[in-house]
Amino acid sequence: MDPASAALAWLKRRWLPVAVAALVVLLLFGNSGFRRVVRQRLLLRSLRQEMTRLKQEETDLKKQVVLADTDERALEKAARKELDYRKPGEYEYRFPPPKKKAPPTLVQRIKNGLRRMLEPGSKEP
User: Fold this and answer.
1) Under a CB-based contact definition with an 8 Å cutoff, are residues 68 and 78 in contact?
2) Three-state SS string across the chain, please?
3) CA 51 to CA 20: how far, in whole Å?
4) What gap in Å lies between CA 19 and CA 15, rounded to an integer?
5) Residues in CB range of 104: below 8 A, 6 or more apart
6) What pLDDT score was predicted for residue 42?
7) How far apart are CA 59 and CA 65, in angstroms?
8) How many helices (DSSP H) and strands (DSSP E) are in the chain?
9) pLDDT of 124 strictly over 60
10) What's residue 89's pLDDT?
11) CB 64 within 8 A of CB 70
């Protein structure tokens, strides 16, 4: 029995479930209302995640406000950070972060070791 005739025989036995499944797929994905519902559910999910993040941010900001009301140093720190506040006559120095050096390779380590051994005044083992 060749594969085409086997598939046709299977389809003859199971035509009703295959037809119902194809009809359901066509109704769901061919219907613009269903696609809209799926899009809206995905949007709702992302908005809920955003709302959770914003509520956490609000809680953190409320803590900062309470801390600024009670602690003078916290208020000054917030003003310096958020508003670039400086006292009269005060300068702010900003330095670029140091560049990270790559770790020395095996060849470089050997060369450095030989240099140290050959330096005048170094102790020989």
Assistant:
1) yes
2) CCHHHHHHHHHHHCHHHHHHHHHHHHHHHHCHHHHHHHHHHHHHHHHHHHHHHHHHHHHHHHHHHHHHHHCHHHHHHHHHHHHCCCCCCCCCCCCCCCCCCCCCCHHHHHHHHHHHHHCCCCCCC
3) 41
4) 6
5) 112
6) 95
7) 10
8) 5, 0
9) no
10) 86
11) no
Q: Which are the contacts of 34, defined by CB distance < 8 A and separation ≥ 6?
A: 27, 28
| 3-class DSSP string for 76-93 | HHHHHHHHCCCCCCCCCC
Whose tokens are 């950070």? That residue is: 81
Quick one: tokens of 69? 């009301």
Which residue type, as a one-letter code, is found at position 11?
L
Which has the closest alpha carbon to 54: 18, 46, 27?
A: 46
What pLDDT is attached to residue 52?
Answer: 97
pLDDT interval class at 56 (50, 70, 90): very high
Give the pTM. Answer: 0.45
Distance separating alpha carbons of residues 8 and 18, to the nearest angstrom: 12
d(CA 54, CA 45): 14
Say what the pLDDT of residue 44 is.
96
Pull the structure tokens for residue 36.
């809209």
